[in-house]
Input
Amino acid sequence: MSKIIKLLIASSMVANFAAPITAQAKQRAVSVSCSVAVNVSKPEGDEIYQKDFVVQPDVNFSDDFSTLIRQKTFDAYTLTVAGRTEVTIDYFNDVGVFDALQFNTTFMLPQDREAGSISGKSAAFTSNGNFTANYTLTCNRN
Output
């Protein structure tokens, strides 16, 4: 067998063994109970969004809290990455006629504890005014 054929066979074998490992690097996690609090400051006043939710394996959490004229959504899902649980959230708020505020974040729960928390801030600055969102996400493994 020539060296080229041996090299092709060897590289094919490596690819076949590595593909399942890569595909399994991100797996669905166990269910996670979370609480999110978002305080949106707008020129007209503050708007508060609070929600307790459970994210289950293969079932994303979605909350459409839109009004008749404004789109507002919150979504969350969980994955296991290298044996650690991570929760990803996505928040969207149509805050005005020409303005929207959106953020997302991924929080990896501490390995040595069942619960954890993360806080952050997102902001948009427009000619109509400044919009900021302060958020806190707290999660517990079930």
The chain has one domain: 27-141.
